[in-house]
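HUMAN: Spend a minute on the protein record below and explain its fold to me.
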Amino acid sequence: MSALGWALPGLPLAAGALLLLAGRRADRLAPALGVAAAAATLAAAIGAAAARPAVRFPLFEGMPGGLAVDGLSAALAVTAAAATLAVLVFAAGDMPAAAARARFSGLMLVFSGAMLVTVTATDLAVLLMGWEVMGAMSYALIGFRWRDPRRAGSGSAAFLTTRAGDLGLYAAAGCAVAGTGALSLDGLAAAADPWRDLIAAGIVAAALGKSAQLPFSFWLSRAMDGPSPVSALLHSATMVAAGAYLLLRLEPLLAATGWAGPLVAWTGALTALLLGAVALAQRDLKQLLAASTCAQVGFMVLAAGAGAIAGGAAHLVAHAAVKSLLFLCAGAWLTALGTRDLGGLRGAARRHRLVGAAFTVGALALAGLPPLSLWATKGAILAAAAEESPPLYAAGLAAAVLATLYALRALLAVWGPAADSRDIGLLERLPLPPLAAAAAVLGALTLPGLAAPWRHLLGAPAGSGALLPELLVSGVLAAAAAAALLLARHRRSGRAAGVVFGEWLHLERMAVRGLVRPVMRVAHGLARFDDRVVDGAVRGAAAGGRRAGRVAARRGEGAVDGAVEAAGRAGRRLGRLARRPQTGLVHTYYAQAAVAFVLLVLVVVLAG
């Protein structure tokens, strides 16, 4: 059991590290080795999901670390491993021979291993280790083509933004030690006041940052400068899902605080709503998919805040298949057509029928149209939102309608008149059919009659029974939105709205003006203070020392030198006196000894 627990994250971490160490020497074999390691990881994930291994090891004094696979982590581990395998198969055909394939495959495998550490960690310390490695690998993967300053800058922007949120996880770990004396995830809800609230605040900040929720969403837009396989893995089944997973895992903590649950639910709903509008305004396919990822993860965050663990986890798994599929299709068209612009992609689905069919399944699932996966999982989340708050339910419904609009907008663009392009290779097409099948059917996990085994797997409480009405309402609204879009497909949206939402609500600009620039001003001010005041004081002290030396040289050096010379003269005189008795004649020494003896006798007599 323990061997399987170690192997689950250990296989991709070890294989990735070896590929990174080998470097360009392993470029030719790297795609095959990466696929083999990913396949072995998927086999280990399936085995771990069945065996449920647990590992404990010494970490800190009195606070051991651990990895364990339960229902929720089993679902996430299999999902992440399957997405890694699909993406590496695609990348084996998509990455040019001149690319640094060993570095790419190694980074992807280490990232996947870090994600598996994150989802199986039983305490905050081990979770932080996986969380941090995942962030570092995302920086390297987004900026993989680092010679392009824009791409390198995008990696830095994504890394720094998520790191700002990650500070909350460090604060949460410190507060957990203070409040519970341990770092175990299971004991956080039982922490004493005010530590429980502080723990929850730190975890919410870290989760929202990692999952690109408001106000951190803009980093996902910059992350689209990375290669398409990176987006297909990081921004579907792993990195952006990690924050939602953490909130679902710690839903008891959110509920125990009284305020964190509603805050998380409303943040998710507003992200789903506003970023849905952002997605609708995009003309770049990858930007549309990125904004839709923020919106769909918003539904998962809403589920965590509303206590819908089973619905949120099902949506996470189904969305991973849907979005991996869509990003891989976008990557295939980018390679074939050389563009991500929706106008330039017109006819792409007609030219490449298999990719077009797969993209159609994914887009219809993303639209929430019955009977595909996200229709059912979204219905389960909306049912929980309806119980929580009617306004929350209304916001969720509005976000679901926007999802229909932006998904069908992308679909209509790629089914236009056919355009010439190069062929798409077999390896690039190979992962698409299984992902399309998963995108179509995974929603069955939440349907009546099939939801009970899924809830039992996750250990989630029984549902409210309000699923069927929510399914009906969301399905009808999605169909109505699709019909309205088809009728109005030739109309253009308002320019003002397009500017605001097309620029991702100007979130990055606000972050730069409200945070980055003030911090830089303070930094420049401190640098000037250091240069002018601190350095000036140091230089002044040195100059004063030199002046004191010159004064001492003029006024005190003569007296000191005179004293030294006088001491030398006295020493010389004493030396001359001491040499006089040393004549070299023996009888002289005898006479001196006799005189000394007589003097000694006199002293003794006189003293007596």
In short: Strands lie at 54-60, 63-68. The longest strand covers residues 54-60. Residues 1-121 form one domain.
